[in-house]
Amino acid sequence: MKRTIIILYILLLCLPLNAIQDTHSFIPLSLSEGLTHSRVQCIFRDHSGVLWIGTKNGLNSWDQSELKSFLHDPSNLKSIPNNYIKFIVEGSDNKLYISTNNGICAFIPTQNECNQILYEGKTFDAWSCLRTDSVLLFGGRKTIYSYSYKNKSIHPLVDEIKGDMNKCVNHISIWDNHRYIASTQHDGVWIFDIEKKAMTRCSFVKERNITNIFVDSNGCLYVSIYGKGVIRYKHDGTFDKHFSTKNGTLTNDVVLDFVEKDNIIWIGTDGGGINLLNLQTDKVTSIKHIPNDLHSLPNNSIYCLYKDDKGNIFGGSIYSGLFLAIGNYIKTYKNTQYSQPEGLSELTVTALHEDSDTLLWIGTDGGGLNTYHQHTGKFQHFSSTNEKKIVSIASYSSKELIISCFNDGLYLFDKRTAQLTPFPLMDNSTSKEEFSKGDLINLYVSSDEIYIFAFNIYVYNLHTKRFTVLSVPQHIKREQFMNAQPVYADNKYIYILSYKNLLRIGKANKNIQSLFSVSDNESLTSACVDCQGDFWIGSDYSLYCYSPQSNQTKKIQNAFFHNIQSLTSDNKNRIWIGLNNMLLSYNISEKRIVMLDETDGVKPNGYIFTPMPMSVSNNIYIGGTQGLTIINKDIEMSDKFPPTVNLLNVSLDGRDITNKVTHDKKLIVPYKHSSINFKVIVDEDIPFHKHLFNYTLEGDTPRKIQSYSRKIELGILRPGDYTLLANCSSNENWSKTSTLLYIHVEGPIWQRSWFITLCVILFISICIGVIRLMQKQMNRKLKLAIAKNKREQEDQLRFITRLNDIIDNNIDKPDLDNLFLQKEMSMGRTSLYNKLKQTTGMGTSEYINLRRIKKAEDLLLNTNLSVSEISDRLGFTYQRYFSTIFKKVKGVSPSQFRNNNGGND
After folding, report:
1. Is the pLDDT of residue 9 over 80?
2. Given 3-state DSSP classes, what are the helix, strand and coil percentages for the chain, each rounded to the nearest 5?
């Protein structure tokens, strides 16, 4: 008996893991997001990733950032023909074919134009469609019709139409390689043979009022009969099974649609939610809307189901719009009405504690204590703790908890009776003093002691029932212990985090030692310990890793690691980082960051550090201002379809010009423009992911933009060539960079190549003409200058010759001076001086002396005249003056000159 109980207990511990793993979350798009009607009748995701939603009142599109609506406009012939949308399908020509209550149209999204398809000159009504490689098959009135993309023509698939001439074909499926099977609302099921071009009634289906049919991956046929559930037939036509509420296999007998994924058929019912049929076990489970349960199905009346090419399941409800069903490992629980088991008693979670039996105790801000039962996924509230602000929770014994309440005191909580008993700190006065300062008083309980972290650190011995106060080292400020929280403990030490330090307390000697600290302008916010025993410490600016073994600290560099609010570790070497309204997972060994969002089950939250040792169940618990986040330990994060950023549309000056982009991604932009905007879409598995984008514009005016927005405005670009690149955050940190667009901005007319060529030719011609003209002018001027120079030289020669003759002929006269030459040359003083200066560069007296010295040289070398005689002969009044002038010109005296040059003595 005891062994059986142990086995059952072990099985019970395993239940929470499966419970979390098998849950689904639902992301809605409803009236509150801008949907034109609550009843969604058809869904389609096109090749670019845009989701198209057909409703009872209009067409909608969602491009991952914006929900647009398209309505019938009587004044616009290119608008959709009618607001009642029956189906949407994309043809191989990338056009959307939309069926309405006023016929089918071919819709071109990039041009926002609808072109109505006619049959025999009239509007053509269709209720269903099947896309093939070459044609579209429309389920119309009477029979199936084939539409040719090439000819844009419609013709019946068979030669002879049988049965009720008013029947409407509401579903078409492939039956085998040459036959289709189709259902009608009031005329049963028909088989169409394309080889024989004939239609015959399906012999094994006797019912006529058919809502829908479905052929599964095994070739079995499911026939939905209005109000009678579903009958399954084998491919050979033999009856297999009836699913209905009567035998407990369905939650509602009105089945409106089917879709299959991973050997599970999703069955949409009108009022019973979604039934899941496992083809391997033939068991049926259900997903239903549960009041007050935010994780449940949005609505129980399902009109249509759709699976895209990435395997996502979308549902269209009758009353709550569209939803995307996602299987995930994360749930975020919020508050519910008091005593309701689907959520918390109060929204903000301030403390967490897990018992050895995996029962999770939750402290709230004013809602007292809650428990979360992991094997049922239900909460329990305790009225005895209502309105208590729980700061810290710890196990006092196997039957009791000790809790710290803000501005109130310590209490023992009996887990069996839910009774609270005050637990005085030292004495009533000390307790009142410590709990009236507005501090958060945290707890740690060991096997024989309770540590109480208030303004002072108190240690309560469970055996002696005595309190002691720990002394704080002088080098550590007491203020640093305010709001200190225990984050880890081993056999020797208790590790606590204050807003400035990571410290440890020796259990034996009670010594306090600081291990890590930050500067005055930085504050520590959270910490946890990984599987290797290293501490991960978050601050308002950074993330640190401290190793007790090496006593070394390293700073982890990443743009995301700012304003860290909480840290939690798991047994798979991951750190869960809570930021403001963002949750990250950091893989330590791979150094990989994963950003989690609503598609993973994470709701917006302001995370609060609620330190808790690694849980018994190994699940991850994170509290916050907006509820409790629970993460299953088995969660794995990898990109099944790595995201790729693609260009969705481009607008120039507010006008969509996407159709101007060539197949090789080239776009020509005119010189005159005021703005260029572009929008991207991410090709990925789940289209609701939140991404951080890196946009890079390479070219003459390069720029980089980092943004969460999928729409970016480039403004005005200068003429030149640009390349637009983009990538986004992913589970591999960043996706591969995609080239979105090659942009060529034309210059003004005067910068165009042909205009520049013309201007260059004209300029060269003008230059040649100017050069030739200048050459002619220069030649003429040169000739004139040469002639003038020749005349001037001749004039100067005549002047110098005459002047020399006058000087030489009168050189012995003492009165040979400037005045003498003026008279002889018949020139004024200034004219004579300027003329002589221009010709020789010397003045009159200087030139006369030069002529006399040259004559003196000849006399000194060729005659026996004495220096005195030569001086007299040359007209010098004084010999001394002659010698001075001679030495000035020749550098030596007359006698030395004669001696040096061998003259006559």
Report:
1. no
2. 20, 40, 40
* Contact yes or no for 495/489 (Cβ under 8 A): yes
Contact 257, 305 (CB under 8 A): yes
How are beta strands 738-745 and 666-669 bridged, if at all? parallel
Q: Which helix (H) or strand (E) holds 680?
A: strand 676-683
> Which domain CATH number covers 812?
1.10.10.60
Please report, rounded to a whole number, the percentage of residues in the chain having pLDDT higher than 70: 97
pTM: 0.77
Residues of the chain with pLDDT > 90: what percent? 58
Nearest Cα neighbor of 114 from 83, 80, 85, 138 is 80
d(CA 212, CA 205): 13
In a domain, 69, yes or no: no
Asked if residue 688 and residue 629 are part of one domain, the reply reads: no
Residue 682 resides in a domain: yes
pLDDT band of residue 15 (cuts 50, 70, 90) is very low
Structure tokens at 514: 């600081």
CATH of the domain at 540: 2.130.10.10
Smallest CA-to-CA distance from 648 within 255, 63, 258, 22 is with: 63
Helix (H) or strand (E) holding 6: helix 2-21
pLDDT of 797 reads 80
The 10s digit of each residue's pLDDT in 230-283 is 999 999 999 999 999 999 999 999 999 999 999 999 999 999 999 999 999 999
Same domain for 290 and 352 = no
Give the C-alpha separation, 876 to 849, whole Å: 10
Q: Which of 686, 719, 747 is the last residue of a domain?
A: 747
Looking up residue 706, the CATH number of its domain turns out to be: 2.60.40.10
Check if the beta carbon of residue 808 is closer than 8 Å to that of residue 851.
Answer: yes
Q: What is the domain range of residue 697?
A: 644-747
Q: Is the same domain home to 283 and 301?
A: yes
Question: What is d(CA 890, CA 896) in angstroms, rounded to the nearest whole number?
Answer: 10
* DSSP state letter for 70: E
Contact 351, 393 (CB under 8 A): yes
Helices 829-840 and 753-809, packing angle to 10 deg: 120
Mean pLDDT computed over 164-188: 94
558 within some domain: yes
- As a residue count, the chain comes to 905
CB 740 within 8 A of CB 678: yes
* Whether residues 523 and 628 fall in one domain: yes
Is 525 buried (19+), middle (13-18) or exposed (0-12) by CB count in 10 A?
buried
| Cα separations in angstroms, 628 against 23, 625, 638 | 16, 8, 24
Compute φ and ψ for 429, nearest 5 degrees. Answer: -70, -45
Q: Of 575, 606, 634, which closes a domain?
A: 634
* DSSP conformation letters of 92-138: TTS-EEEEETTEEEEEETTTTEEEE-EETTEE--EEEEEE-SSEEEE
Whether 562 and 505 map to the same domain: the answer is no
CATH of the domain at 369: 2.40.10
- The radius of gyration of the chain's CA atoms, rounded to the nearest angstrom, is 50
Tens of pLDDT, residue by residue over 758-772, are 888 998 999 998 998
Residues 378 and 434 grouped into a single domain: no
Quick one: CA dihedral 753, 759, 761, 763, positive or negative? negative
Residue with tokens 């991850």: 620
Residue 550 and residue 533: Cα distance in Å, rounded? 11
Is the residue at 355 inside a domain?
yes
For residues 314 and 305, is the Cβ–Cβ distance under 8 A?
yes
pLDDT at 793 exceeding the cut of 90: no
Same domain, 358 and 383: yes
3-state SS, residue 596: strand
Domain count of the chain?
6
Domain match, 319 and 237 both: yes
